[in-house]
Amino acid sequence: MSSEIQQQINSLREELNQHNYKYYVLNSPNISDFDYDQMMHRLIKLEKEHPEFADANSPSQRVGSDLSNDFQQITHKYPMLSLGNTYNEEEIADFHQRVVKAIGEDIEYVCELKYDGTAIGLTYENGLLKHAVTRGDGEKGDDVTANVKTIKSIPLQLSGNYPKNFEIRGEIFIPNSEFIKINELREKEGDPTFANARNAASGSLKMKKSSDVAKRGLDCYLYYMLGENLPSTIHANNLEEARTWGFKIPEHYKTCHSLEEINQFIKHWDQERFNLPFEIDGIVIKVNDINLQNELGYTAKSPRWAISYKFQAEEACTKLLSVDYQVGRTGKITPVANLDAVQLAGTTVRRASLHNADIIEQLNLHEHDMVYVEKGGEIIPKITRVNESERHPLASPISFIANCPECGTALIRPEGEVAHFCPNDKMCPPQLKGKIEHFVSRKALNIDSFGEQVVDLLFEKGLVKNVSDIYDLNYEILNGLTRISGDDESKKLFSFQEKSTQNLLDGIQTSKSIPFPSVLFGLGIKHVGATVAKTLTRKFNTIEKLSEATLEALTAVDDIGPKVAESVVKYFADEENQQMIARLKNAGLQFESEEHLTSEGKFTGQSFVVSGTFSNFSRDELKKIIEQNGGKNLSGVSAKTSYLVAGEKTGPAKLTKAEKLKVTIISETEFMDLLEN
Length: 677
Ligand code: IVH
Hints:
Helix content is 37%, strand content 19%. It is of the alpha+beta class. 2-(butylsulfanyl)adenosine (IVH) binds next to strand 3, strand 8 and strand 11.
């Protein structure tokens, strides 16, 4: 009897371990949440009834305990060092030179992402997780094993051909979606929110009750193995081996053989990092050959065989000088802070965006406050907080302006919007100029020789007041036209010469063949972005049909809400807009869609969510194929979704939701079959 029970317990443990692995490491579960929970309950029940079969590494232990943790210190077998930081290409070149000098030219590097969480060292004995230890002071760290066991992507028991004893190190982090949830909850419950996902991860790891840790959605990537009997003398091979034992090893790494390749990797991820579901703060470059690593050795603090490159995201403190208010093409007012110049991550910062009146109020911004600026993904840095202790006692709060700084019109704040607007869209100069700039921009009419300077010049001379005037320009008008800008000290001269005149006229001519969706987008109708423009032209394939569309007809289109519909109707009701369109049409611009011909296809009436990465296509390419065949791309899984095209690393939340809603999940190959058959 008792051995039968033990067998039952063992097979439940094994099955649950498998499901954990599939869900949390491979991101491809093949069991419903419900069935998983049932299985877990059966195991917990059996373990409770038969305490003689207790096992510290049972998957049931992952729910954590309510007993208070007491973190013992454990000495690291191998000191846990940090990495030297670099911030630019030159410093990386210096690192490379040092490596070359020590071991010669023929070097293979591995470039990895630098996960922005908290470091962890996991020791395994006979395939079982023995200890999980934080970095601590590098010599000794806290034993956080009980908490780490709640992280489901960390295997408690390994499979395959692993060494008897080894340590594997990595980073515990909180995915962005979980971080948002944690802070929302904390705000609701009146707890202070975490400043960033890294703090949330390290805070969570040190929580007293492991059952609370289990709720924090922690995850872990492993990136470094240590031990006497490792499978290979090549770092990347060891990690690939470790993947087969059940570890979550990052896919985002690349072997590089030159500085160019390294810099390319950096450039790629400097952009692409914003599309990752977690935070990274740089990349790590490692010599791949462990024998060469040993030859290079260590300084007191860090290895000589590896270095990190940090993306710019530092914070600086400086003084607020004044606040400017910029008027955009839609009349939207954006407050911008002028700052006392300060160095931030390698650049001098003089301005920061304040976004809107609410943000100014939330920051409780006062005149001449000392403010903290941070450079996130945006080009313009933002003010994150104010040092109120340094505020002058008589300083008055910054109050949002009531009138347009450019034309004096009283500002409005439409219901449901956070921004203020200048309603004078027919006369307010920056709005008129902004509309022209938008019209000629890349995603619209794409006239690249029509830069800001040209817009300023033609607008100021009264030659282009609205976009239809562009098509009246000719060589005689343009050639020799000159503009002087700036003050006495920094005077700039711009003038149309023969070549620049011809370039502009060529660009204008070419723009006449730009397809209708881009032209519609170029008109700059409020709330009609590039995607909405595409949707509208697909449904109403001529400008006449669109301009006659009623509110009802517009809102009947999938993805078109009342806000867009109202804005479109209002735009076409305006006589001046109609006249302008008539002139553009006369000039030969495209106001008829060819797309409706292709919008009927294999996937007409079907909607897709494309998620993860694919081997033969990029995500965007797949989306394009779907569109070209009449299908619709959705960003999230809903009951309306026909298919979830799941690549590698598809978010587990999407998969779970698709399963719940009975949405068909298909692979890249199945998608191609669908298309071709
Ligand atoms: S390797 C001896 N690889 O960055 C080198 N570290 O200051 C061991 N980190 O403490 C570290 N991503 O917490 C390595 N792909 C990666 C990493 C990484 C993040 C963290 C780690 C380390 C710190 C270096």
